[in-house]
Specification:
By secondary structure, this protein is α/β, with parallel strands linked by helices. The protein is built from ten helices and 17 strands.
Length: about 350
Amino acid sequence: MYGILINGAGWVARQHAAAYCNRPDCCIVAVNDVSRERAAHLAEELGLENVGIYDKLDDALRHPDLDVVSVCTPQHVHCENVLQIAAAGKHMAIEKPAATTLDELRRMQNAIHTAKVKTVVSFVLRWNPLLVLLKKMLIEGVFGKPYYVEVDYMSYNGSWWGGWNDARTLKQGVSASLVAGCHAIDAARWLATTENGKAASPVEVYAVTGGFRKGKTREYNPITNSWIDNAPPMEYDGLEVILVKFENGAQAKICVNAECVMPYRFPIRIFGDRGTAVDNKIWSETFPGQSDWIELPTVCPDSSNVSHHPFQAEIDHFIDCITRDVESHCNLEDAIRSHEVVFAALDCYKYRCPIELPLK
């Protein structure tokens, strides 16, 4: 039986907690949040009994029978949280983005190596049913060798999301790619290789940035299809177009558009030397006589609501990794490669030239 601490009691924490509750080998023993009231409300909402309620992580980490922590706090405090949790010797699931700077990520990585604990970073779309199918087809050679991948994050991030007030700032959010577009970057890495359980390693990045929304106080709400005035402004560009070269020779284009006036979309394209995928539509020479696209009847990554995301599959995978004493394919060490693309893009905007990876 694994004792679980939910650290942070916001929107995404409910999905982590529900996933643990669905497992007979996991028991949530504590909830921590800067607001004890919010922590207690989450425990009550999930029907948890005899649960420790805390407003300081140090105190929560001393709760008895604690093995695993889900880090569901805002991204700008992840590094501090992870260093504390590693020092306490606990395994951890870390929400994306894992940190706000490359230096923070390296400090976290060193602490985790020293503590010899397991991690998973919530690039949760690796477990989306469509991406699971596409990865399986890549491994089986349905598309042959992938040479070009496109993955786009298309949304209108705003105050409809509870974490927006932190994420919209340059200091705590950093960029549209870091706040949410990193999902698309990681998905492109995952789909740019036929290797089982691995994502492609980026070696070069070139990116441009733009858009119209930075600094504006007029804001769109895609949930209600309405506009509001005098909203706190986004402090960075909402549009980024990122080109990536991978070590295996494949290339990718990622568009992060956090200001498109439309419902959320997450388009995917895979081009291989034997076939193509366009979202859930497949064309391949491995299907002789194919005369039309084959449409996969599956769940696509077409909603920004975290309740739509496959947290159960991610948590199941992570607990299995701990039980078998193996590393997740999406541990912090691997996730740093997706984050490096974000920080390389920021360097591109500054220096106006391609940036080689890994970053120095």
